Amino acid sequence: MIRSLPDALRKLNPVTTWRNPVMFIVEAGAVFATVLAVVEPTFFAWAVVVWLWLTVIFANLAEAVAEGRGKARAATLRAAKTGTEARRLRSPDDPGHWDVVRAPELRQGDRVIVEAGEVIPGDGDVVEDIASVDESAITGESAPVIRESGGDRSAVTGGTKVLSDRIIVEITQKPGESFIDRMIALVEGANRQKTPNEIALNILPAALTIIFLTATVTMQPLAIYTKLVNPGVPDSLALGADGVTGIVLVSLLVCLIPITEPGMGYRYAP
User: Fold this and answer.
1) Rounded distance, CA 115 to CA 162, Å?
2) CA geometry: angle at 14 spanning 12 and 15, to 5°?
3) Is the backbone of residue 161 left (phi > 0), alpha (psi -120 to 50) or beta?
């Protein structure tokens, strides 16, 4: 969180915040409330200002933490991929001779030998022998699975670990299209289309914010008009021409608008 704090402060830039309309309105309200508190300083005004800025900074901090975790996870996956070595067969018909290469150097059609305790260097199919494989790093399932040549249990994924025996794997992935590559792209948020639910969750708070903003902005003119037309109306019913201050309106708006989902900054959480 400490490392993410500078990123959270940088996200206060309106050029960045406007992409999230809800938090943009909250930040604009915080700036407006700060100006009003400076002009007419009161304990209530400064208390509102403090809470508004805490809301904005916490939202940015949560988003920065989520992005930082995603980048760290992507860096870990990338390091695991580039650091894995593979024994690539010189000839598919000669399993006794191989060259040690890095996993990113493997190409589609290459065959590699993977023994117990070694990490499978890339996505492929088992073409010889049988082994138990730990796929918890990919699937989260702690129980090992059996992978053997032929049938529907021959596919293996790069980054998983062979627990027993030895297998020969034929690489079927193209460079940059492995499961780990797609995982890194997903974690970093690259080339990912938003789901219909995400689009709806973005549109709904924005639409409600516009409605609440309109309702809040019109309260002061309606209060003044009511007091002018009916001077005998009590202030508690007319809201009071002087009672509906800018601080109160900003506080009301922030309490009304739905800041829970987009405000907490989990849009980038993997």
Assistant:
1) 6
2) 115
3) beta
For the stretch 124-175, pLDDT in tens is 899 888 899 988 877 777 788 888 888 788 888 888 889 988 888 988 887 7
Residue 34: CB atoms within 10 A of its CB come to: 18
Cα 245 from Cα 252, distance rounded (Å): 11
List, in order, residues 6 or more apart from 80 with CB less than 8 Å away: 119, 159, 180
Please tell me the distance from the alpha carbon of residue 249 to that of residue 256, in angstroms, as a whole number: 10
Identify the bridge partners of residue 100 per DSSP, sorted by sequence position.
87
pTM to 2 decimal places: 0.52
Instruction: Give the containing element (helix H, strand E) for 16.
Output: helix 14-17
Domains (range + CATH), the chain: 5-76+186-268 (no CATH), 108-174 (2.70.150.10)
Is residue 138 within 8 Å of 157, Cβ to Cβ?
A: yes
Local structure of residue 159 (DSSP, 8 states): T
Looking at the chain, the whole-number percentage of residues with pLDDT higher than 90 is: 0
Q: Are 147 and 163 in contact (CB under 8 A)?
A: no
- Bridge partners (DSSP) listed for residue 115: 166
H or E stretch at 44: helix 43-83
Helix and strand counts by DSSP (H, E) for the chain:
11, 9
Task: Determine the length of the chain.
Answer: 270
CB of 81 closer than 8 Å to CB of 160: no
